[in-house]
Fold this sequence. Notes:
It is built from 20 helices and no strands. α7 packs antiparallel against α15 (285-318) and α9 packs parallel to α13 (226-262). It has helices spanning 2-5, 12-16, 21-26, 32-45, 50-74, 78-85, 88-121, 125-140, 147-171, 176-184, 191-202, 207-218, 226-262, 272-283, 285-318, 324-340, 345-359, 361-371, 374-377, 384-408. By secondary structure, the chain is mostly helical.
Amino acid sequence: MAAVLAGQRRGPRSALLFVGPAVIASIAYMDPGNYATNIQAGAGYGYKLLWVVLAANLIAMLFQALSARIGIVTGKNLAELCRDNFPRPVVFVMWVISEIAAMATDLAEFLGGAIGLALLFGMPLMYGMIVTAVVTYGILIFDSKGFRPMELIIGAFVAVIGMCFVIELFIAPVDWSSAVHGLLTPDLPDAAALTIAVGIIGATVMPHAIYLHSGLTQGRAATRDDGEKRRVLRFSNREVVVALAAAGMVNMAMVIMAASAFHAGNSDVAEIETAYHMLTPLLGGAAATFFLISLIASGISSSVVGTMAGQMIMQGFLHIRLPIWFRRLVTMLPAFVVVAMGVNATEALVMSQVVLSIALPVPMIALIIFAGRRAIMGEFVTGPLVRVLAIIGALLVLSLNFVLLAQVFGVPVPGLG
């Protein structure tokens, strides 16, 4: 790696040394929380909302690139920068909100994996949760072996999710001309479509992914001068584009699959369980099985990443590092409580997204502040164009999150049905 940073070694294989952080962060954009929204978009409106998924993905690329940037340049993660630069009471409030967000994230991801296992193997949901807990803890043990083993494991899960949806697209009768038209032509047929678009974009940038990406890059490559930092940033930006593009294509594939399978005669399909049961008679058992395999891979891998993010948040804000088994126990307890109380799993997923919407302004605004502060970033401070794009993206995402919250709590929003 030192030879690459010094410019003595070049080529595609050199870039592979820096691949990993964005791959891990990309799991946040393929987690079970995205499944229901994408299925609802495809079932209800066919291919017409694909452009929304594309717009959401571009916003995600920008913020993940900024998160990686501050980690590389400062050698600190976002939580540590908050602790060092904000007043103590503000830091405490930010930590509490971020911890709640991490737990809400893990609730959605943990439930997603458990739902997939329960449906695939016909087991009770509680048993599916126990299996998910054991598997995720087993994977988290590898986090102590250095960054590469975990990156390879998460990368394998990403590959499984991607391959499952590639297969789905071969099985489903896709109208590719309509799909391309929907991707390139912005269209919101009615108020309900606007509501779904709000859901897609509003849940694009995940709080834990912003924190985590900065931590994954902060000490991965030891740079000795600004020239080496520039090289690492170039590698990082390329990886962000590729990894987030792959995540975006997975989300588009979900919408395309739902459009092909459900839009013509089952446009009211909106839940993961319903989609699974409908896929067998419509596209065959193979399509339903690959759908569940992707959901299980998504749930397990994103739960692992969520626990890593929670650990980083606590360590960054408070300088406290808990044993991984204790962190895993704390973050999965809410999911067990929810299921034990008999709460509908899909409703729990929706409520977890509401919590994330409340928490999102904390890391997003902090990221824009630090990336644009010359005293922290030096010559790597964001330029005017990037700063304006980041502010516009933040305003868009946060506004749509407020719309989501208003809908959940029954506050009328003009123009939305």
